[in-house]
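Researcher: Please generate the 3D structure of the following complex. Treat every line as part of one assembly.
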Amino acid sequence: MRPRDGTPIPEPEPIGPSHLLPPADVGFATAGGVTSRSPWELFRRRFRRHRLALVSLGVLIGLCIVCFGAPFFAPYARDHQDLTLGAVGPSWHHWFGTDELGRDELTRLLYAGQISLEIGLAVAALSTLVGVVIGAIAGFVGKATDQMLMRVTDLFLVLPALAVLALALEKFGHDSFTIIWVLAALFWMYVARVVRAQVLVIREQEFVEAARASGATGPWIVVRHVLPNCVGPIVVNATLAVAAAIVAESSLSFLGFGVQLPATSWGRMISDAEGYVGTSHAYLLYFPGLAILLTVLAVNFLGDGLRDAFDPTSEPA
Amino acid sequence: MSGGGAPLLTIEDLHVDFPTDDGPLHAVDGLSVDIHDNEVLGIVGESGSGKTVAALAILGLLPKRARIQGSVRWRGTELLGRPERDLEPLRGEEIAIVFQDALAALNPVMTVGRQIAEAIQVHHRIETAERARRVVALLDLVGIPDPTTRADQYPHEFSGGMRQRAMLAMALANDPALLIADEPTTALDVTLQAQVLDVLERIRDRTGTSILLITHDLGVVAGLAERVLVLYAGRAVEEAPVDELFAAPRHPYTLGLLASLPRLDRPPRQGPRFRIPGQPPSLVRRPAGCAFHPRCAFAALPTPCATERPDDVDVGPNHRAACHRVDALAGITPDDLAAERP
Amino acid sequence: MLSYVGRRVLYSIPVILVASFLTFAFVRATFDPTAKLRQSRTAASAIREERQHLGLNEPLVEQYGTWLGRFVRGDWGTSERTHEAVSAQIGRALWNTTQLIVWSVLLSAMAAVAIGVYSALRQYSVLDYTFTGLSFLGLALPAFWFGLIAIEFLAVGPKQWFHLSQPPLFFVGLHSTSGGVVDYLRHLVLPVLTLTVGIVAGWSRFQRASMLDIMSSDYIRTARAKGVPRRRVVLRHGLRNALVPLVTVMALDIGALFGGLIITEKIFSVPGMGKLFFDSLLAGDATTLTAWLVVTAAFIVAFNLLADLAYSWLDPRVRVA
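Model: Done. Output below.
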């Protein structure tokens, strides 16, 4: 090759003439070596762009702080009631008004939020954990276990969820611990499917063979190779599960199958206020509903932002 | 540049940018070319050189976010900036296009026959029966066996080669004056490639249709085109009659492309084939000066190659090259380059 | 095609059988059919006799076999709550629920397709953002809360504000004794609205996404390159293809609605399937509950099947498979 001005000739890149052959300019937007970044850097960039998701994250953290810090933030003590006051609409002393027993609605809302959020978070965590474990087992063990998992999933999908939940709670009791695991029992399937699919893909790849040959065990392979590849769907699904669980719990509470007094959740508060529709005390209905709405909205936006941030093919919103 | 009479299609200083996170991506960067009646023009370039984008720009088919500048004139009438409504009568009727991935480019829930019939229907009011006859005739023209049965089948029931030929039939439905074939053979294996090229050749010989053949494959161009335009990083680097381009290229990139072609007409040399060093440039941060200079074996550095953008230089009749060093390249053949490997 | 249907139907049967067995076992484990007798302090011997009579001392599988035999012959037992034939009860409830579903689905489908197509074609327009915002709201609204708020602002509220003798919209049941079409519609609006909000939100998002996906596909570009007018490109090529996944999702959702209206029917006291389940669960009516669960599961399975069939009917690529 011709020398050029004394500069050493760079080694040819390994792409060679093959760069002339395969696919033509379909991916023109990415072709031509746009600077590459690490997946995490990309994730942070995309997520930060999602301002709504950032705001939502802030809202959720704020909600958790005020609800779980209710003893500090609530304007009144948990069991404070003023029977002579009765139900009075929002005022300076009682921002959200009081209920028929003269209890401060804001205080009740914060303590009820503890239960609602606790159930939402616990169900998301538990169902994700169960889903990952079962999905990984099904993917690795394969055959019979795998078949059984898929059939069980099918089976769960043909039963009307809310009815089954109500029935299950009728059998197992109504405390929040029971509610959490009953809900989790219905929420793990999606994660299990995602993890299973990923395991099936990964299992066939050579580096797993290599890892196995050098003595790596199933659990290690899952942690090291499988989970990083499906962290996106898992995190998004776990996020959305928080909202789904809060709504499910409040629906059950509304029907009377959820948490029982003295414990109160947002759904339970709405249920208690059902009789006030069309009366001057209808405000008792608004605030718990708005609390659920706000939480679910924030969780959904967060989930959406995470999905976009994790999925390199999704377009920026 | 070549041929006589007013050109059919004139592209002048065409620029197409796509906004990205890192700034505008210059997919097409000042492309100028004419296409005349009865002509087969080959456009050659690697992935990302802007060939497909340029083709889509002609028909106004680029996504909305694309920023387009310059001029595209059809029989003297400007096409850029015209509303969809004005372009619709032109598309498929005067200018037709064949895309490379026929499976994706055909509607999966419509029979092939109906998709071809639709191409006729939107431009000409003719009887259904007559239309059906034309569809069968078109399928026959592109060499699809048993065209009557095939017309009622869906794209997924066709083989890859047949799908590509069905696309061709659809493009030819209204006897267009210009057929743009965008990588018509890329997705196919060698025997099927030959079939499709055969059909293109027949079209060229039978009808007066001009063909704009877009490909990365110099072999395809050699067989079919009369004139060749070599594209690099969205810009035409060399244009010449096909024989002259192969015999006496005057741009280092063309030279490199030709040198890296496998040759069947002589025994294989020792060692690996020639390859152009380096990678295609970033279209966002284009190298200063000549976009090819970082990979060029002939570059005069730093000036002018790394500082000034080369202008087109006429190096012969109908032969131009955009290179500062055209004179240095006179008389160098691809074989010289290939033989001189370190 | 036929063998495809056949295979799908054959696969559904064991699913239903297993689901019904689990349902049967679970309800048995939850409720004791002799609980009422116990409460009324009936003699232990009488209870034993009743258990013998009901076959409760047999092994579970045998009980299930007996139950299944009767069930497929149309003998669904007698409700312990109303002492009425369960089949008659479910039939009546199904008819009411079906009315709600039909109206809600019709409205939702039209709205969702219109919104989805518009949003996809005018992506990032003011209206697209508005629809997107509303659908997020719709998806986050707890149905029961929305129902109560709707009663407050669309029925009771207007009645008070304007001193009407009747609320403009009714919120109890599906008919008044007076009857008439107008009366029927006034009953229908609120429950249908409550259902529609959530459904439209979900379906329109789905339709928007699939329409966007399809409008950027190669074959849409081909259609445009042929000179097909925009309107026709959107309807014949875009919408036609986008309907394939939407119809599938619709069928799946409709199936789930037959057992999923518990809250709406409770709020608006509509004597449908949801209300029946609620009342039966409160009363511990095991016979009705078992039949109810099997029937709703059957609806879900049937509509899953329908979704598959619709898919293969709409997309020729599936037919050969």
